[in-house]
Amino acid sequence: MHDPFPLARPESLLPYVQPVADFLSLKTLPLHFHEVMIAFSLYHVTNRYISPALSRSLFPRIYPSFNARTKLNWDVHVVSFVQSTLICALAFWVMGQDKERSEMDTQERVHGYTGASGLIQAFAGGYFLWDLVITMQNVRIFGIGMLFHAISALCVFSLGFRPFVNYYASTFILYELSSPFLNIHWFCDKLNMTGTTLQLVNGIVLLLTFFSCRIVWGTYQSVRVFGDVYRAYNAGAVTLSNPEFGKLNNSTVVGNSGFKHDILQFAEGQTVPLWLAAAYLASNLTLNGLNWFWFGKMIETLRSRFDPPIGTRRLETKKALLIPESEPVLVEGTDVVTPSAIEKDAEDFIDAGADIKLEKSRSGTHLEVHQSEVRSRTSTRRRG
């Protein structure tokens, strides 16, 4: 299937992109570099302009009250929500419409290429590029661990432009199906909706989607890609010639020559180096291990938001506070605000010693306030 993206690449930029693609052995990047930059720009504009404006409009009291760190996290979560929703919709569309993809064999799943799967690679790569930039700009907030994660995610996903396991771009990007619900859970906490019915229902859907798409689907597809990469590694260099016809030549192509040659147009002579297989499979194993770890943490975190028997949240019991008689006391509240306000040098102050008396009961926790009085500063202030 050809690339369905409606905008053609700008040919004027190709001379600048081609040398980089050749140096990195990313043969299909020149076909999709404009999509990478469009995706990057979309996420940058969403983070920088759309999210702040929309959030101030929808939550005029809450969003402006956030400090700079929380606003940054909020806007990043908005971008994550937009990206995960968009990329999953594209992936489902490609998996349903790309007939060539559904007919691929092992060799084609590893070395093959279709324009539609390249579009998925490009939009995912644009997001990981944006994620790397925003993490580098705020490394003190996100931490060095998130920086290494952003670098590795961009590098590993860029391998699809070799092309390498381009078929699995749509497959593994469906990990993101759980991300919209994860972001909604985070938004509920920031909007003072912790423990609400909305968060409970969303949390259940989050666990179901995370378990389905990352644990079940992800583990199954990891086994498939491990098998494909192993067989491609043992098969050696890719050739479009049929060895059963004896001497190899350009005329002895396999079966549906046009179909196969189109998918493997960038694969002639390609092999799966040991470093490439090891790096990809190690990254995949690490991500799957993290998915299992995160799933347990998500259950623990979700239960901490709710009361038993569903959750594990417990009511905090306040311990009795023993106040020594000699210790100064500051009283705050609605009943006693400014007892015995005394004017001195045109300024008010509280004579706490005259009006606040400590009396210990048997429990040692009784505080009694005598002669509490609220005076208006404006009515008692001297004039002239």
UniProtKB/TrEMBL annotation:
SMART domains in the record: TLC (SM00724)
Keyword field: Membrane, Transmembrane, Transmembrane helix
Domain spans labelled TLC: 69-307
Compositional bias per record (Basic and acidic residues), positions renumbered to this chain: 362-376
One GO process term, biological-process aspect: lipid homeostasis
Ranges where the record places region Disordered: 362-384
InterPro entries referenced in this protein's UniProt entry, alphabetically: TLC-dom, TLCD
Bilayer topology term: Multi-pass membrane protein
Protein localization: Membrane
Name of the featured protein: TLC domain-containing protein
Organism this protein belongs to: Neocucurbitaria cava
